[in-house]
Design brief:
The chain is of the alpha/beta class. Helices cover 38% and strands 11% of the residues. It contains seven helices and four strands, in the order βααβαβααβαα. Strand 2, helix 3 and strand 3 form a beta-alpha-beta unit.
Amino acid sequence: IFARGRIEPPGTGRIGEAFIDSLRAKTDKSVGFYPVNYPADTEIVQGANDMSRHIQYMASNCPNTRLVLGGYSLGAAVTDVVLGVPSPAFGYTNPLPLGMNDHVAAVALFGNGTRSVLGPVSALSPLYGAKTIDLCTDLDPICSGNLDDPIGNWASHLQPAYIDSGLVDQAASFVAARL
């Protein structure tokens, strides 16, 4: 279940596609995917409601399926809300009920701006800490806190920086080991 980054067209986005392809190459398990349905402009809460709804649907209808959650940039913030907000708030109307963490095998986050403000998702929700890989390129101004030259470092936040650096492949290895 992957939430694409801001302004990417509907689907899983470039990082989501690369992540799914890499994960499929690292496991003999069947890997399906669900792209979070949201406008991917500023609607974090709308994405969080959809992600949470799909997690609950899968847990109810396919209880033996091991779920992998993920997101890039704005999509990482969507995932943070789902995993870190335990009750309805500010339009987030569909929080995960207790026990959903048992259905989640792993979480992969890329370019997560929330981490520079609140810390990694493992600090937000200890239930997912050991299951989570939260990756940020060294110069990414969104997640690294490196604001010395945010405009000059912008390329460090874009999809090729994560794909070409091997961070997407690193996340796939982390997740494959938990399936």
